[in-house]
Structure formats: structure tokens, C-alpha cells
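W.,

You were right to be curious about this one. When I first looked at the sequence I had no strong expectations either way, so I just let the prediction run and decided to look at it fresh. Below is the sequence, 110 residues in total, followed by the output.
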Amino acid sequence: MNYQHKDLADGRWFSFSFPDQMANIGSEVIRAINWKNKNNPAYSKQAFERSLELLYLTIADTKNKKRLRELTRLYEVLADYFAFNNEYKSSDKLLQNYFLAFNYLSRSGY
């Protein structure tokens, strides 16, 4: 796989806590949403692809084994929202609120 986050893919990602991983994924998702709302589909797609890359690394992290159901469903929801027909009826606000909790946990040092 050709990673955009090469240093993270080389193992550094696995040293992050779960809230830190999710907050970083959330940053890319928020970027994708912001670019989508600014009518820049190329930049939105790039941010979306980076978020999936980080999510893929999070799924591969053995410490997150018990969270696989949530993580794989999140992968499905993001793909549905950004690349398909949004059958799950997700919204910008819903995704932002989901990741906001991880941002809070990450910053609180949990």
C-alpha cells in the first residue's frame, strides 16, 4: 500500500492511544467536510482518503481488537457518506459530534 502518512504507517501510529488515533482521524474527516462545503471536491477526496488510511491503521492496531465492530462500521459510514449515496443518512454535524468526543478525550490525557 502507498501510504500518505509514511511515518505513522511505519509503526509510530501504534504508539498512539485510541483517543489520539480517533482524534487524528477526526481531523481528516473534518477537513474533508470543510473542503466539501467549500465546493472543492478534489481536496475533500484527498482528506477523505487520508482519514480512511488512518482508520485502516487503527483497525490493524492489535490493541483495538475489542473495537473492531465500531471501527469497521465507521469505515463503512465514512465511505457511504463521502463516496456513495449516504444511505445511512449521516450528516456533517453527526460526524463532527462523533469525533469531538475523541478530541476531548485526547486533549484531556485519557
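Here's what jumped out at me. The chain has a mean pLDDT of 92. And, maybe more interesting for your project: The chain is about 70% helix and 0% strand.

Coffee later to discuss?

I.
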